[in-house]
Amino acid sequence: MPKLSEKARKLLEKPVIGHLVTLMPDGSPQVSPVWVDTDGEYLLVNTAEGRIKPRNVRNDPRVALSATDPDNEYTGILQIRGKVVEVTENGARDHIDKLAKKYLGKDKYPFHQPGDVRLILKIKPEHVSGGVPD
């Protein structure tokens, strides 16, 4: 499995917006802007049950994600292709609060909806490229 470089991990520690591509049942691409995180080895994307991302990855786990460093738009580019190896509720509520702190500066995710079931998509990188991976 390709490892995330130190530069890639540092970029993902910033509040960068990723663009996650999943595949629709007919094979066509679907892209969503996402908050993205890493545990150092896997990419972690938080979403909610009922949205298109979890439906698509349960049908076909192949995904792609791109992110651009806002401080270095021309060479700070990260592109990752991989597979979702796990879709889990475990820790997802705490994870979205962690992302709210990173992206919004808030201790709690302010957009919780009654009945929301939060999910973490755990993505195993299979190909890492762009200006950041070195």
Task: Report what the structure shows.
The structure is a single chain. This protein has a single domain (6-129), classed as Electron Transport, Fmn-binding Protein, Chain A (Pnp Oxidase, Chain A, Roll), CATH 2.30.110.10. Helix content is 22%, strand content 40%. The chain has helices at residues 6-13, 52-59, 92-104; strands at 17-23, 29-38, 43-48, 62-68, 77-88, 118-129. Strands 1-2-3-6-5-4 form a six-stranded antiparallel barrel. The radius of gyration is 14 Å and the shape is globular. The mean pLDDT is 93.
In the CATH scheme, the class would be Mainly Beta
Pick out the low-confidence regions.
Answer: none
**Mean pLDDT reading:** 93
Strand order of the largest sheet: 1-2-3-6-5-4
Looking at CATH, the homologous superfamily is: Electron Transport, Fmn-binding Protein, Chain A
Look up the CATH topology.
Pnp Oxidase, Chain A
Helical fraction: 10-25%
Count of domain modules: 1
What is the radius of gyration computed over CA atoms, rounded to a whole number of angstroms?
14 Å
Order of helices and strands: HEEEHEEHE
Task: Give the tally of β-strands.
Answer: 6
Distance between the termini: 16 Å
Structural class call reads: alpha+beta
Tally the helices: what do you get?
Answer: 3
Task: Describe the structure in brief.
22% of the residues lie in helices and 40% in strands.
